[in-house]
Amino acid sequence: AEAFVLLARALKVRRPVVVHPQFTEPEAALRDAGHTVDRVLLREEDGFRLDPAAVPEDADLVVVGNPTNPTSVLHPAPVLAGLARPGRVLVVDEAFMDAVPGEREALAGRTDVPGLVVLRSLTKTWGLAGLRIGYVLSSPEVIAELERAQPLWPVSTPALAAAAVCVEPRALAEAEEAARRIAEDRARLVAGLASFAGTGVRVVEPAEGPFVLVRVPGAADVRRRLRTLGYAVRRGDTFPGLGEEWLRLAVRDRETTSGFLAALSTALDAPA
Fold first, then answer.
1. 243 in a domain, yes or no?
2. Residues 152 and 68 in one domain
3. Which of 33, 42, 99, 193 could link 210 by a cystine bridge, Cβ 3.0 to 4.6 Å?
């Protein structure tokens, strides 16, 4: 989150573009810094996949998530790398990439993509959101610009200690195993949701993140009914490009998913 603010304040850009639907904080940070932000809205009929031709050629800052929150779409690395241009900063938010087995399609570590900035989080897999720890990968020149805009002592000692532990070989192996479990649990959730196709429920596939995006008739009412049954789901209409019929569902273990699907059946059958 801090990286989005630093990028917005430190970089001198004329035409920033944010690819939506995605996490809303990058655009908010750019607007707060005084920038006029253009949007590229991905389409449901295209599976929310990125068409590079939709990105304006004169955009000098492009922000895209991978895998994207909330769509759970994993864009191919060559497609994203192909967005790089001389004089353009390409920001790829990989906050959920460690939930993808093998981190396939990751650009972290690439040094052959000009203007690339990759943002990573250490808090998703480990449930450490309160520590606010992540990191930025980019050229020394970009990193130096961000450092000049950064407040003093921005990261706490507990967060630094956690960061060190989270990147040890043992932790990386555990995270990879967690990613495989997420893939299995997600497949189970998607299969269960498919049983509601007759009621108009539609899942955006293929989903690759630790959540899935679904279109649900009467989603606002369904969300409220689910809440009374003990299940909280994320509304989708706060994401640019999505309407009130969308919900984002977290991937959980077998038992939780079974309970959720039963609750969803009840919520969908309830009278309006």
1. yes
2. yes
3. 99
102 near 108, Cβ under 8 Å? no
Per DSSP, the residues of 146-215 read HHHHSPSS-S-HHHHHHHHHHTSHHHHHHHHHHHHHHHHHHHHHHHHHHTTGGGT-EE-SS--SSEEEEE
pLDDT digits (tens, 9 = 90+) for 187-210: 999 999 999 999 999 999 999 999
How far apart (Å, rounded) are the C-alpha atoms in residues 97 and 74?
Answer: 9
pTM of the predicted model over 0.85: yes
Please indicate, yes or no, whether residues 189 and 159 belong to a single structural domain of this protein: no
Task: For residue 29, report the phi and psi dihedrals to the nearest 5 degrees.
Answer: -65, -40
Query: Distance between CA 142 and CA 136 in Å, rounded?
Result: 10
> Considering its fold, how many domains does the chain have in total?
2
Domain span at residue 228 reads 178-269
Residue 188 lies in a domain: yes
Average pLDDT over residues 229-242: 96
Query: Which has the closest alpha carbon to 11: 62, 58, 54, 72?
Result: 62
